């Protein structure tokens, strides 16, 4: 049997994630996931590609989404500690134009306190915006679906066996293993050692086989159901040490280029999904594939 080992929400796009035992799967992904975004003064989104220190910003969102706290991640580096700012989330402030990968959207500015805190920490003038209630973005893919400020589809899923294979290949080149947080997934899946189904990728223990998530087209987890959208094309964010908030070397992109290059020319790792049926998810839930397809690579 394959099951959920971790659920991670990233309330602010590009910032640190929060692991949860339980999460509500909404039509646009895990509740509050990527519902806020840091932007430049002219509205262009900021990510770890150019601002790796975003990884050190630890957001905490209240269950009802009305209060957001920004803090710095726990680290021994005293230069990182930056105090805390609390924000009463507004959905009624004027909208402003924002740019996400060149696509125009709207955002609700969350005020000067958040802007000052982020600008000082990042060393670059910044604002914080929230997805407006009328946000109607539909991310593309085999099964399209609503999405907030995520790069593309609402949910990113990776199996532990895929990371194990990658780390083994990097070790063969003399490299050190990388943690799962380099890939910033929402749902991490692993096989269960006491499962009686064996290691059949089309059976209950499908997550025991690396990259089998590439072929999953319909997945049921807890009360929810996911529909496959696309493979996750990896970028320079995977080079950022999430604990240090800085780029570290050429891995994993160098090794992924050896065995995970897509026809489009990029490298892929993990898969993106749309939400077919919302509901409650929990760590430990069985992850059951209801429909399979051929891998796109």
Could you walk me through the main structural features you see in this protein, from its secondary elements to its overall organization?
The chain is mostly beta strands and 297 residues long. The chain is 10% helix and 38% strand. The strands form six sheets. An eight-stranded mixed β-sheet has the order 3-1-16-15-21-18-17-23. β4 and β5 (29-30) form a beta hairpin. Mean pLDDT is 93; it is low at 195-201.
Describe this protein with a few key phrases.
eight-stranded mixed sheet, single chain, five-stranded mixed sheet, mainly beta, 297 residues
Rounded to an integer, what's the Rg over CA atoms? 19 Å
Can you count the helices?
3
Structural class estimated from helices and strands: mainly beta
**Helix content estimate:** 10-25%
| Straight-line distance between termini | 26 Å
What is the strand content? 35-45%
Write down the secondary-structure element order: EEEEEEEEEEEHEEEEHEEEEEHEEE
What is the quaternary state of this protein?
single chain
- The biggest beta sheet, please? 8 strands, mixed
Which spans of ≥5 residues are poorly predicted at pLDDT below 50?
Answer: 195-201
Shape: globular
Rounded mean pLDDT score: 93
Strand count: 23
Spatial ordering of strands, largest sheet: 3-1-16-15-21-18-17-23
């Amino acid at each position: 049997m394959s099951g959920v080992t971790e659920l991670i929400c990233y309330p602010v796009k590009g910032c640190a994630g929060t692991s949860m035992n339980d999460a509500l799967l909404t039509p646009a992904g895990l509740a509050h996931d990527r519902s806020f975004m840091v932007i430049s003064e002219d509205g262009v989104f900021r990510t770890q590609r150019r601002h790796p220190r975003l990884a050190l910003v630890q957001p905490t969102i209240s269950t009802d989404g009305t209060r957001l706290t920004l803090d710095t991640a726990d680290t021994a580096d005293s230069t990182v500690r930056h105090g805390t700012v609390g924000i009463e989330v507004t959905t009624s402030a004027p909208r402003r134009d924002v740019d996400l990968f060149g696509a125009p959207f709207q955002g609700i500015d969350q005020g000067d306190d958040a802007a000052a805190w982020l600008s000082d920490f990042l060393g670059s003038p910044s604002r914080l915006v929230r997805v407006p209630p009328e946000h109607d973005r539909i991310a593309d893919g085999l099964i399209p679906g609503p999405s907030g400020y995520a790069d593309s589809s609402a949910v990113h899923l990776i199996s532990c066996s895929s990371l194990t294979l990658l780390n083994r290949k990097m070790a063969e080149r003399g490299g050190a293993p990388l943690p799962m947080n380099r890939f910033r997934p929402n749902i991490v899946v692993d096989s269960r050692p006491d499962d009686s189904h064996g290691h059949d990728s089309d059976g209950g223990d499908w997550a025991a086989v690396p990259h089998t998530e590439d072929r999953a087209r319909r997945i049921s987890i807890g009360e929810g159901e996911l529909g496959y959208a696309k493979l996750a094309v990896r970028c320079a964010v995977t080079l950022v040490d999430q604990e240090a908030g800085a780029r570290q070397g050429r891995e994993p992109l160098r090794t992924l280029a050896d065995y995970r290059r897509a026809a489009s020319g990029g490298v892929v790792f993990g898969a993106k999904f749309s939400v077919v049926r919302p509901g409650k998810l929990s760590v430990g839930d069985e992850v059951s594939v209801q429909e399979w397809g051929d891998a796109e690579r």
